[in-house]
Structure formats: C-alpha cells, structure tokens
C-alpha cells in the first residue's frame, strides 16, 4: 500500500504505435479500475522505449526511473502486451525486467500487488501463449495474477478510438480484469 490512503493502479503496455490495439485494450481495463475507486496511471507505447535492462548499470534513463517509481507507488498493476511471434513484445518484457530494481524494497518486486494481464495478437496461438508468459513472469516477480486474464484475437475483435471494441465480450473481460485489480488493491488497503 502506498504511503497515503489513495490506492493506485498502474497500467503498462501497448506497442510503439500510439493508439495500438493493445494500448486500447489496456485503457479499457485501466478505466474500469478507475471506476472502482482507485487512481490510475498509464505508461504505454513510446514511454516504454528504454535502454535494455542491465543489472550492472546503476544509472537509469529518466523514463526508466519514472517507470520504476510508478511501479513502486502502485498497489496494483495491469499489463497488456501485443503478441509477436508467439511471445510478448520485447518492449513490454524489457519494461518488466526493470522491476528487478525493486528487489531491495520493503515491498520487493510486485509483492502484494494484484496484476491484471491481457495479450492482444492477430491469432489465437500468439494471444494464448503471450498471456501464459505474462502469468509466468508475474509469478516470478511475486505478483498476484488476477483470476481472469484476457487473450484477445484481433483477427476477430477490433478496438475503436472511442474506448470500445467490436466484441462486447472482450470489453467485459477487460473491464473485469481492471475491476479485479482494483478490488484486490482496495481490500488490501482496508477500504
């Protein structure tokens, strides 16, 4: 829990293309978390262009410092990655590698945080395998993956600029992921 009574959820993901399908999915989940009564923050796309994570380097790029500090403040996290060739994007994986900078914190890594996960890919295979990888990474980082995760096939579902999608079931899934993260964070905070 953050030092104030405010419960905070961070969204991480998307691709290099602003307004990408994965970023739009992330915004839906994060919006649902906000509706549940938490504050939210989004670090997406171009903001995730970071130097490759290197444990040997102590100095961090300003975007990396912002990311690590945002994760440190977060009571919950939502991660949405595009699926590329059956795996999460290098952009999102590198961002998650920076969680290592929290290893010596009072709350190390993602300890005590609910983590909502979704994968967005053009095809079911990449969407499903990417979600599985996100869950494995979350567990390795001591995070609590929400019961529901999202595998979204953009060959069948298209997100729009208005914050919706062509498939209402996909929107409901993303909204439930966001509310699960918020509810877990709020319950841990005693709200």
Structure description:
It is a single chain. The protein is of the alpha/beta class and 191 residues long. The protein is built from 5 helices and 7 strands. The chain is globular. One of its GO terms (cellular component) is cytosol. GO terms for molecular function: FMN binding; oxidoreductase activity. Residues 8-147 form the NADPH-dependent FMN reductase-like domain.
Layout of SSEs?
Blueprint (H helix, E strand, L loop, with lengths): L7 E6 L7 H15 L3 E6 L17 H12 L2 E9 L2 E2 L1 H8 L16 E8 L2 H17 L3 E2 L4 E4 L14 H22 L2
Parallel strand pairs: 1-2, 1-3, 3-5, 5-6, 5-7
Antiparallel strand pairs: 3-4
Helix pairs in contact: 1-5
Summarize the structure.
The chain has helices spanning 21-35, 62-73, 90-97, 124-140, 168-189, and strands spanning 8-13, 39-44, 76-84, 87-88, 114-121, 144-145, 150-153. The chain is of the alpha/beta class and 191 residues long.
Determine the fraction of residues in helical runs and give it as a percent range.
25-40%
Structural class: alpha/beta
CATH fold name, please?
Rossmann fold
| Low confidence ranges | none
Strand segment count: 7
* End-to-end separation: 11 Å
How many DSSP helices? 5
Residue-averaged pLDDT, rounded? Answer: 95
Name the shape in a single word.
globular
Q: Proportion of β residues?
A: 15-25%
> What is the CATH class designation?
Alpha Beta
Describe the largest sheet: 7 strands, mixed
Write down the domain tally.
1
Instruction: Report the CATH architecture.
Output: 3-Layer(aba) Sandwich
Could you tell me the radius of gyration in angstroms?
A: 15 Å
The CATH superfamily is known as Flavodoxin domain
Helix-strand sequence? EHEHEEHEHEEH
């Amino acid at each position: 829990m953050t030092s104030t009574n405010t419960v905070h959820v961070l969204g991480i993901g998307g691709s290099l293309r602003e307004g990408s399908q994965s970023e739009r999915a992330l915004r839906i989940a994060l919006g649902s978390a906000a509706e549940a009564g938490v504050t939210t923050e989004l670090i997406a796309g171009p903001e995730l262009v970071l130097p490759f994570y290197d444990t040997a380097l102590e100095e961090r790029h300003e975007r990396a410092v912002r990311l690590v500090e945002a994760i440190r403040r977060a009571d919950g996290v939502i991660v949405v990655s595009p699926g590329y060739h059956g795996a999460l994007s290098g952009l999102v994986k590198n961002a998650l590698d920076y969680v290592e900078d929290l290893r010596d914190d009072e709350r190390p890594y993602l300890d005590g945080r609910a983590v909502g996960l979704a994968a967005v890919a053009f095809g079911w295979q990449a969407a499903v395998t990417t979600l599985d990888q996100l869950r494995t990474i979350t567990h390795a980082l001591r995070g609590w993956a929400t019961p529901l995760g999202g595998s979204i096939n953009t060959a069948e579902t298209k997100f729009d600029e208005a914050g919706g999608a062509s498939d209402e079931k996909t929107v409901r899934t993303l909204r439930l992921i966001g509310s699960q993260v918020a509810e877990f964070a709020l319950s841990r905070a005693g709200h």
